[in-house]
Inverse folding.
């Protein structure tokens, strides 16, 4: 496949630059670890500065050509790529699970959601409407056009190796922008197959490029390149801030989808058993390694004890194991760093007087498994209620009034997602108005689907992905007056 491989290294993960798959060739190779076994399953190729320059030259060359390609033709390619992904769902799901850890049923859902995202942008790209603005003179015509912003640099996280690039690539290509994707070195396989789907769908060489490698080197090289007009990143708050500073230094547009520490407000009129059922499924999905994972559960005092009992019993009963095994409800964490983080956060909370109701420790000696954990009585100075845990831990606390619940929910600098459970219209109106969050789910845990905008406020990010807003983020408005 046009590679420069090294035969003695098995299962190389390749770069894709200007229509060519590139692997090995004396480049740095990084091992890819199966988090359920800690075994090396592949090696991913690191891009050199020369590789990045070649990718930049490709998007610079293709920018005008792809912009002139009709929205109808761009839509057909996106739809074809989506169909290819659906046709390979089982292969892709197993690849995600082996490299990232989530159970197969969750991986299958990620494949389906990613294909749906491409379909959404395929259609929405055909509706990137401008507008005619009434002029003050009948001899004048005023038109606001929507035009592509230009070449994009996208940086993707490891926790959703198919869904994250789908959001960025789908929007960019539908808008008419070529793109360079920096994928995760820890979960490269599904991202590679995502790009391969576009190659097979007929996307011209150079419009979509995929690189892996040293994150600081790649981010510096791409963001500083004059040809790049927009930066889009999904990841942690500290890294997002660094990239935002680099992009701002060149006055480049950016979308930053950063971390969260999502609050859940459960009022006394809610159905406690129903909420507990949904909460446990949402909390421990992908072992809690989701930016909008519900984490801080604030429960009104009259039903607090009942909720703690119901939630803890369900968490303790979760079946933990390899994501490939039948019946697994929670897989391993993705890397050893997350195990160390869980140990530090839970240990700090216990040292400050918190109670671990269930879990709280690593499970076994092989694989990155952490027990589903529930903690209560956590003081507000504990690290776990101030730093994003990004793991399978739920923090349960009580509140006595709507005002107190809102204050607790808003006390952190995060504002990505929040959840509310109540039957009261008055409470719903108050909480909706006063919660500082980019997304809010009321009486459910559904935060994002392709046709809805997703993104945060405060330290949780800038801009939106998905929905009409996700397409608009890759477009700029050009005003033209003609007489």
């Amino acid at each position: 496949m046009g590679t420069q491989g090294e035969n003695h290294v098995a299962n190389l993960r390749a770069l894709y630059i200007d229509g060519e798959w590139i692997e090995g060739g004396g480049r740095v190779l990084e091992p890819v670890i199966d988090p359920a076994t800690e075994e090396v399953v592949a090696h991913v190729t690191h891009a050199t500065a020369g590789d990045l320059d070649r990718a930049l030259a490709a998007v610079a060359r293709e920018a005008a050509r792809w912009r002139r390609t009709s929205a109808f033709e761009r839509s057909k390619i996106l739809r074809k790529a989506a169909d290819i992904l659906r046709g390979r769902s089982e292969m892709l799901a197993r690849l995600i699970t082996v490299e990232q850890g989530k159970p197969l049923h969750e991986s299958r859902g990620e494949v389906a959601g990613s294909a749906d995202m491409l379909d959404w942008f395929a259609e929405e790209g055909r509706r990137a409407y401008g507008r005619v603005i009434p002029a003050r003179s009948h001899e004048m015509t005023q038109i606001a056009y929507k035009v592509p912003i230009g070449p994009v640099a996208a940086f993707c996280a490891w926790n959703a190796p198919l869904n994250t690039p789908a959001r960025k690539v789908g929007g960019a290509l539908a808008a008419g922008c070529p793109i360079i994707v920096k994928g995760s070195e820890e979960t490269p396989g599904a991202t590679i197959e995502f790009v391969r789907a576009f190659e097979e769908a007929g996307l011209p060489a150079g419009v979509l490029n995929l690189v892996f490698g040293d994150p600081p080197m790649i981010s510096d090289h791409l963001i500083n390149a004059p040809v790049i007009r927009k930066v889009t990143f999904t990841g942690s708050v500290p890294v997002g801030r660094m990239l935002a500073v680099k992009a701002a230094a060149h006055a480049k547009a950016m979308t930053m989808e950063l971390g969260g520490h999502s609050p859940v407000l459960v009022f006394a009129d809610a159905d406690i058993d129903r909420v507990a059922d949904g909460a446990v499924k949402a909390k421990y999905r992908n072992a809690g390694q989701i930016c909008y994972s519900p984490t801080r559960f604030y429960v009104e005092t009259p039903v607090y004890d009942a909720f703690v009992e119901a939630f803890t019993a369900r968490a303790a009963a979760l079946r933990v194991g390899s994501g490939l095994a039948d019946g697994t409800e929670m897989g391993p964490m993705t890397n050893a760093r997350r195990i160390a983080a869980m140990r530090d956060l839970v240990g700090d909370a216990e040292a400050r007087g918190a109670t671990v109701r269930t879990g709280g420790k690593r499970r076994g000696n092989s694989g990155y498994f952490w027990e589903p954990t529930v903690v209560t009585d956590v003081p507000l100075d504990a690290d776990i209620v101030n730093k994003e845990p990004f793991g399978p831990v739920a923090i349960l606390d009580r509140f006595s009034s709507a005002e107190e619940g809102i204050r607790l929910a808003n006390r952190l600098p995060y504002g990505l997602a929040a959840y509310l459970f109540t039957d009261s219209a008055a409470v719903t109106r108050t909480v909706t108005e006063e919660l500082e969050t980019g997304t809010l789910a009321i009486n459910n845990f559904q935060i994002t689907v392709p046709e809805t905008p997703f993104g945060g406020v405060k330290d949780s990010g800038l801009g939106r992905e998905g929905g009409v807003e996700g397409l608009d983020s890759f477009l700029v408005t050009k005003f033209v007056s003609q007489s």
User: Anything to note?
Assistant: The chain has 14 helices and 21 strands. The longest helix spans residues 104-124. The radius of gyration is 23 Å.
